[in-house]
Amino acid sequence: MIDLAVEALRRHGVGRDVVLRDSGAARGAIYHHFPRGKTQLVAEAATRNGEQVRAALETLPSSDPLTLVTAFLAAVRPIL
Questions:
Q1: DSSP string, 26-68
Q2: Structural domain spans, the chain
Q3: Nearest residue to 59 via CA among 49, 72, 50, 46
């Protein structure tokens, strides 16, 4: 559910119904895994997304500033 919520955050925002539909989980499952409901799910998804972004940034070449900026722009261009 967290991975689906991360994808939803990246696209358009997290809707509980979308996460449930895409995961195939029952409505009660969200509260079983996330007792604080959607707020907790979104917080955990944002944390995971931040970790993924940090990991991706750490793989950028840092041999010189121009190479770093070029690689960064190549990485974010498809997203933007």
A1: -HHHHHHH-TTTHHHHHHHHHHHHHHHHHHHHHTS--SSHHHH
A2: 2-76
A3: 72
Residues 6+ apart with CB under 8 A from 40: 34
Both structure tokens of 50: 């931040």
Which residue in the block uniquely carries the two structure tokens 């070029």?
Answer: 70
Query: Among the listed ranges 1-5, 11-15, 40-44, 47-51, which one has the minimum average pLDDT value?
Result: 11-15
pLDDT reported for residue 1: 79
CB proximity list for 6: less than 8 A, separation 6 or greater: 45, 48, 49, 52
Element (H, E) at 18: helix 16-23
- For the stretch 57-72, pLDDT in tens is 999 998 899 999 999 9
Q: Are 42 and 14 in contact (CB under 8 A)?
A: yes
